[in-house]
Amino acid sequence: MKGRNVYEMTQNKNEEVFLMILEKFSLQGKVAIVTGARTGLGQGMSIALAEAGCHVVGVGNLEMPETKEQVEKTGRKFLGIVANLSSIEPVQAIVEQAVETFGKVDILVNNAGIIRRADAIDFSEQDWDDVMNINIKTVFFLSQAVAKQYIKQGTGGKIINIASMLSFQGGIRVPSYTASKSGVMGITRLMANEWAKYNINANAIAPGYMATNNTEQLRADKSRNTAIVERIPAGRWGLPEDLMGPIVFLASDASDYVNGYTIAVDGGWLAR
Question: Lowest CB count within 10 Å: 108, 189, 206, 216, which one?
């Protein structure tokens, strides 16, 4: 009997420790702004944050009824903001609406992005500017506005930028996308260097080849699709749910000592 009691005490203690570490991943009562939340990776990350306890401010170029429905199914609140992120004009209003609705901001996920494909020799200035404006300029200035809010709150916070495999590689036929995503990795490091003293963590996730709207053209090209899948050790395209664990980790207290780092979620692509 004595041995059994010791065993039960040990099991109870183990369960307590287990629950303690899980609490580090909880986002209960937190508020996240997620750009590009209408579909794909942004929608998946919004749902993951909500499942971990977070209220979500979704920013998209159109209304987001499906994301709203999925977030609210978790019992969390959702505020949808329709904004054109090709300029920084809506940046301050996004932060103000989030604070007006929820009283604070704790997490920013800079996910919105576009891609334009053409041979570098023929690439247009318009395609360069359109991609750079959304993928890096707005990312920086929205991060800046949210960082100012974190400092005002005195609470610190998390900034999570969505980078790419082309933050590490050159790619082909996507010069402005490669430049912008390389910039995302660099600016993430700078934010970490300057803002860590305010208890702000800035990190990035670099998704591999994901089955999203941005890659629809690639997946439709049978030869390119086959070549890509054959190079991925996991043997498949990534899905929005593959980012759920990493986004919750970087948004939570479990990652408090991770700063300025870009995590590849790529099925092993970079390991080849």
Answer: 216
